[in-house]
Each structure stands twice: as structure tokens, then as C-alpha cells.
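Aim 2 progress update. The chain analyzed this quarter is reproduced below.
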Amino acid sequence: MTDERKIPEGRLGRFVRLAGVGARTGASLLFSKSSPSEAAAQKAAEVLGTLRGLAAKAGQMASYVDGMVPEGQREAYETAMRGLRAAAPTSSPAAIRAVVEEDLRGPIDELFAEWEDKPFASASIGQVHRARLEDGREVAVKVQHPGIARAIESDLQNADALGGMVSVLGPKRLDPKAVLDELRARFTEELDYELEARRQGQFSALHAGDRMIRIPEVIAARSGRRVLTSEFMRGASLEEAALADEATRRTYAQTMWRFVFKGNLVAGMFNADPHPGNYMFQEDGSIVFLDFGCVQPIEGERLDLARQLHKAATLGDEAGFRRVSAKILLTEGGDYEKTALDYSRLLFEPIFASPYRITRKYAASLVEGVKDLKDIAIKGDNSFVPLPPGMLFMNRLQFGFYSVLARLDVEIDYRAVEAGFMQEAGLA
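Predicted C-alpha cells:
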């Protein structure tokens, strides 16, 4: 039985619902120091799931990013939020059919030979339906929730009510316009499924020939701005993958690292949504990668510096690494520069100390590191400089990606994995 709910779209209505969870500023309930409560956690999941949009993303992040929820409360909140991550509330069949028929300009019965009204997945921006084309191919059709565009704009206007999520992405208090501009750019792009389809094709071309990285083919004739149709693929969840034998888990971890950093360093495409639901694990160690809606280009000098940074890490060049880090972060000396460069070095520990086992404790320490940076900024230290444009979502990747790898619990020579694809691309 599906849980059909209409998305509250207006700014005031969404703010009231966030505040009604019981937190002073909406999603900050997830970061409260009060005693854990299963009922409170379930209520938070229910409210954030019904709101969808950025509110649901905040809840989803809390369900898998180590360190976002206080240790004493983690189990209660992760259990409730995991349900949100696995199955967010859905939009009604009639509303979804209306979106598909308007976007693809035809009756659904003519567009698809078979159509299942019940979605098999629902997330913060859209939900996915199983269908079949006239030629017999089984496809997955991702359709935006009606009203989601207005809901996201309302959330951006209510940014303070989403302080919990924003606070772990960067020091919002010190440059709110820059943070909101970057949030708006990335999340507005997630509403454009035509752009996502192009990016999905670009990632597929980048990894062509790598049998361990599988990306569904886009069916362009059945896709539009709010509808994205791809070949249907199956696979195990992260929770199931974590139960595989060690050799298979090692292959999973190596494949994930290659997918993420080959995209960053070879193609200059930074896929900033490491949601566990975007990975479908296969028995042979290969992985199906889904969702290319939140992709940030890395271009020009920034791409060159990123490559220099990773090269310094693979060579174990500590001085060179700190020098390039300072260029990327535009630091100007003082306590902030030392703390920021120390934090950058911590992020690259899996390469410097390779072979390395990424643990949940290590992943949680990255969230704590951002809090240390914020403390310096909030104290008004004159050495503080805001994050350069384009850096906001880097934290989202590190927190989420490392938290996913921690669930696989294996030791990997990440330095060798990285050196392999860089040499292959002629960039070593």
C-alpha cells in the first residue's frame, strides 16, 4: 500500500511543518542534544518525508552520514531515517500520470506498452515507476513529484529552517548569499531531467569498457524535462552488500572509488550525491550507478589544482599537498589556514595511509572537523576566509561517500586504484 501525500509547496506551510517537529529551527531536531526518542525520530522522518525537497534530503543525509547525529541518539534516528531513505511518501497515480502525459505529450497507454501505477521507489524530488516499451524492454521511469519545484524554492527561502543540513556543508552564517546561490544552482539543476539525461550519457561514455561500472541507458524518446526513462536494472542494497564476502566487498569499494574520482579528475565531473540508494550492487562485484542530477563541473585551474592535490597525496608529498591545498582554499595564513589544511590532509588519509580501512569513526571525524573550522570562523578570527565558490558540495561528497565505504568495512589500496585510472588517462 503506497503512502500518497500531496507536497506542501508554500514557504509558510513548509516552515510551520518543520518547526512543528519540535525543533527550534526545523531539521536541527536531528542534531539536538536531548535524549533520544523513537517516537520523535519517526515523527521527524514522517514530516521530512512528506515535505520532500531539501527537507527530505536533510533527513536522508542524517540516515547514513556518520557524525551528523549525536552518538547517543544515532540508533533511534538512523532506524527512522533509513525508512525515509528507502521509501519516501509518494505522489498519487493520477498526479504522476498527468506529469508524464504533459511532459511527453501523449497518453501514457500509447507511450508505454505496460505501466505500473505503484512506484517501486520514491525520493526527495521524484519517484520511479516500472514500465515496458513496445519493443519489450523493461524500463524505469523517474517522474518529478507535482509541485516539487515550488517546494524547493520555498525551502531555499526557508534556509534557516534547514540549518542542520547547511551547517555541515559549510559556514553558512558568514556568507549566506554565496551558500544559497550554490544550493540554488545545484538543486535547480536537479529539476532538469534533460540535463540529467545528458550527464548520464557523459558518465556512461567515460566508463565505457569498464565492466565493473554499469550505467543504465537513457531512453531519449521517452524522456523530457520532468520525466527520465532508463533501462531497468536490478541489484542489492548497501545493507545487503555489506554482508557479502570480503573479496566482493573489496571489489565494490575499489569500483566506487574509481567511479567517483575518475569522474572528478579525468572528466571534471563531480557527482555530488552519494546517496546509498544510488548504488545497486551485483554479485560479480560490479555496481549499477544511478542518479546524475547533482553534478558540478570542475574546470580550468580548479581541475588542474585538483589533479595536483591527488598526485601529491599518491606520492606522499606532504609539503606539496599543503601548498596546493592553500591555493585551492585561498587561505591567507593564521590559525584558520593551519586548521583548514590539517582538515584537508585528514580527508586524504585513505590515500596517504594506503592501504586503508575507512571506518565509521573516521567518517564521523570529518563532520567534527567542519565544526572546528566553523568555530574559528564564528570567533571572528582575522585569518578566516570563506569557502571559494564551488566548494560547498565537496563536503557533501566526502561525508556521504566515506560513510558508504565505511559500511563495506574493507582495507583497500586506494593509492593504487587512483594511480591506475590516472595512468590510463595519461595524467599520471
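DSSP finds 19 helices and twelve strands in the chain. The mean pLDDT is 81. These observations will guide the mutagenesis experiments scheduled for the next reporting period.
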